[in-house]
Amino acid sequence: MNLMKQTVTASNLTDLDATALSQAIHSRTVSCQEVMQAYWERIERLNPQFNAIVNLAAREDVMAQALACDQALAHGQSRGWLHGIPQAIKDTGHATGFPTTFGSTVLKTALPAKDSIMTERLKAAGCIVIGKTNMPELGLGSHTFNTLFGATPNAWDTSVSAGGSSGGAAVALAQRLLPVADGSDFMGSLRNPAGWNHVFGLRPSQGRVPFGPGADVWVDLLGTEGPMARSVRDLARLLATQSGFDARQPLSIRDRLDVTGLQHTPQALRGLRVGWLGDLNGHLALEDGILPVCDQALRVMENAGAVVVPTELGFDAQALWDCWLVWRRALVGPKVAALLQQPQARDQIKAEALWEYENSLQLTYMDFMQASQTRSAFYQHLLGVFSQYDVLALPVAQVWPFDVQQRWPQAIGNRRMDTYHRWMECTIYATLAGLPAISLPAGFHPTHGWPMGVQLIGQPQGDLQLLQVAAAYEAVRSDWLQKRPT
User: How far apart are CA 466 and CA 263, in angstroms?
Assistant: First the structure.
């Protein structure tokens, strides 16, 4: 049954996507207070188990804000499509009144003076911020755990990882603790947890969503915020809210994203040219069962008219990995260095962050420029690839969700992982090229029932095309996509 077509009642409010919820609020079918009450009761019941939302606001405060939203609607005043809808901001983003901890004990009391750009936009669209979503310490590693708040387990199986770094956001969505969520993505931080929790996640084009403002606005652009949702229409509306130029981020894309023409029919799959990269001819180590699940999702597209062709990356994958290591160390190192200025910080920062920092000290300007040139050559190469294909497909992760007590996979099969993030190598290609990439629910582990996603990488600034493809995919798998954890 398609939840978008359900009759709205007080008992099913947390089952609705954000668009249906917004329609119900604006038609006065339900009140903002009823919505907040329904979500609050669910959070109180489930969040102690899943630890997805942290630094939760006081109940009386958010209920007072919901009352104010109801009073505004009574006078014909809507703040936007998210009017009165609860939202928790990923703990990389600033929201006044809540610490921005990045999951670090060093920052546990770091209260921001103002909202980040994205939070400003979400509030301007009418949302009520009720807390933050959990993440790995400093966003490093695709597994949501830290010493400040603890771990966030998978929405489908609490014994395994939710992924990360937007793990709290993905689990809050899958467990209906939030109707829609923001995430951020550097090395698959949005795509991986979306895939592992059976929700949608979109890493936007570089500059589509202005990030920050941060300490650097010219070079540090590989990470980006983006939307996560249970439906493509929510994903599109949230991205439209997040996107658009901001002078504080001078390289942000000026055009606002218009998603009003999105068609929720299979039409966009007819004739779609999909280049299926698989495991890059064995370069990527993958656990058993992942490729078949992704193949299954691509066959769904093929049956709806897409043309899926196995293809090669056509670029030195090891050179791209070496390039990635330089870029990552260059961008992460200074952030860790800033924290190390605080007393006793070194004893509180996790080993993986210190490893990034210490390696960054060895970089030279020549190293960075050579890595930048490799990245540039890769982008130019992909322009040629996209003359043959509309989208490129890859698994969204190289392993299934692993034990929640494990820091990171030490090996995939008989191949040792030489860094704490090598098992997420499949996510670097969209990031390095600054291209949009969407994580689509693909299928489930045959025996454990863990979700897995497939990622589609779009053409330069092809965010809207990816959303249209996702909407078509959703149209042909609508009932299956409504599966939810128990």
Answer: 12
Q: Between the CA of residue 295 and those of 146, 198, 394, 451, what are the distances in Å?
A: 34, 17, 10, 14
Strands 437-444 and 451-457: antiparallel
| φ, ψ (nearest 5 deg) of residue 371 | -65, -35
Residue-level pLDDT at 7: 66
Q: Are 399 and 348 in contact (CB under 8 A)?
A: no
Q: What pLDDT score does 6 carry?
A: 55
* pLDDT value for 10: 64
- pLDDT for the residue numbered 212: 85
Is the whole model's pTM more than 0.85, yes or no?
A: yes
For residues 94 and 117, what is the distance between their CA atoms, to the nearest angstrom? 8
Q: What is the distance between the alpha carbons of residues 214 and 160, in angstroms, rounded to a whole number?
A: 33
238, pLDDT greater than 90 = yes
Q: List the structure tokens of 214.
A: 């941060």
Q: Which amino acid is at 483?
A: K
DSSP state of 110: -
Q: Are the C-beta atoms of residues 125 and 241 closer than 8 Å to each other?
A: yes
Nearest-angstrom CA–CA distance, 354 and 452:
31
Whether domain 3-481 has CATH 1.10.10.10: the reply is: no
Short-list 478, 426, 480, 481, CA closest to 457: 426
Q: How far apart are CA 406 and CA 408, in angstroms?
A: 6
Can you tell me the distance from the alpha carbon of 178 to that of 70, in angstroms, rounded to the nearest whole number? 19
Judged on CB neighbours under 10 Å (0-12, 13-18, 19+), 112 is: middle
Work out the mean pLDDT of the chain and round it to a whole number. 97
Instruction: In whole angstroms, give the CA distance from residue 161 to residue 224.
Output: 22
153: alpha, beta or left? (left if phi > 0; alpha if psi -120 to 50) = beta
Question: Residue 52 contacts by C-beta under 8 Å, 6 or more apart in sequence?
Answer: 133, 134, 152, 162, 167, 168, 169, 171, 172, 175, 177
Identify the three-state secondary structure at position 58: coil
Q: How far apart are CA 348 and CA 337, in angstroms?
A: 13
What pLDDT sits at residue 252? 97
Identity of residue 52: A
Stretch 318-341: mean pLDDT: 98
248's tokens = 């504080």
Sequence-ordered list of residues with C-beta below 8 angstroms from that of 248, at least 6 positions apart, any chain = 117, 210, 212, 213, 217
